[in-house]
Amino acid sequence: EREGIDFIVDASSITEYLDTSLPLHERLKKLAYNKGISIHEKYPDDIVISADTTIYHEGRIIGKAYSKHEAKSILESLSHKTHSVFTAVAIFYKDKVFNFVDETKVTFKDIDAMIDDYLSIDEWKGKAGAYAIQGEAHKFIEDVNGDIDNVIGLPVKHVIEVIDTLKKPE
Questions:
Q1: Is 52 a catalytic residue?
Q2: Taking a C-beta distance cutoff of 8 angstroms, is the pair 139, 74 a contact?
Q3: DSSP per position, 77-118
Q4: Which of 10, 46, 52, 102 is catalytic?
Q5: The pTM is what?
Q6: What are the residue ranges in the chain where pLDDT is below 50?
Q7: What is the spatial distance between Cα 169 and Cα 132, in angstroms, rounded to a whole number?
Q8: What DSSP line would sit under the chain, residue for residue?
Q9: Residue 71 confidence (pLDDT)
């Protein structure tokens, strides 16, 4: 909406699965592709964008928390440290597919004293890393190295660049 692009949202019904036999970026790209392919088949003449955001910290992938206890543990592990936010994107247009992963490094302040208050507002639910940088968790941030839109869940500038390229006549 911010970029003036007309769109609809149509959720994919796949079971999200990361293929651990692949290197990290490839497994993330595969998930974004798998999320979008059925939607592309449904709307073959439209541009379809699918994406998935993942936190990577200290050698492990941190997905969505499924309980308040798990969310607290995740946030405590990120407190006063830097982590990577990867958003994998697949863009489908007619017979073309462009698949990429963008990375943004996020450094948290020491947030230990803020965690319980944050968890009480339930903003953590459904969010990779148990936080939403565009919400109250902006108070956690010491530094963002890269595109903040990537942390929110879609590297918009990169997506627009790809769409412009895909739409060019061959």
A1: yes
A2: no
A3: HHTTSEEEEEEEEEEEETTEEEEEEEEEEEEE---TTTHHHH
A4: 52
A5: 0.91
A6: none
A7: 38
A8: -TT----------PPP---TTS-HHHHHHHHHHHHHHHHHHHSTTS-EEEEEEEEEETTEEE-B-SSHHHHHHHHHHHTTSEEEEEEEEEEEETTEEEEEEEEEEEEE---TTTHHHHHHTTTTTT-BTT--TTTGGGGGEEEEES-HHHHHT--HHHHHHHHHHHHS--
A9: 97
Burial track 1-29 (b if 16+ CB lie within 10 A, e otherwise): eeeeeeeeeeebeeeeeeeeeeebeebbb
Tokens of residue 166, six digits: 């895909």
The structure tokens listed for 108 are: 């948290």
48-61 confidence digits (pLDDT tens): 999 999 999 999 99
Q: CB 78: neighbour CB atoms within 10 A?
A: 22
Rounded alpha-carbon distances, angstroms, from residue 30 to 66, 97, 123: 23, 12, 28
**Matching residue, tokens 């790209």:** 29
pLDDT of residue 155: 96
Q: Return all residues near 33 (Cβ < 8 A) that are at least 6 apart.
A: 50, 90, 97, 99
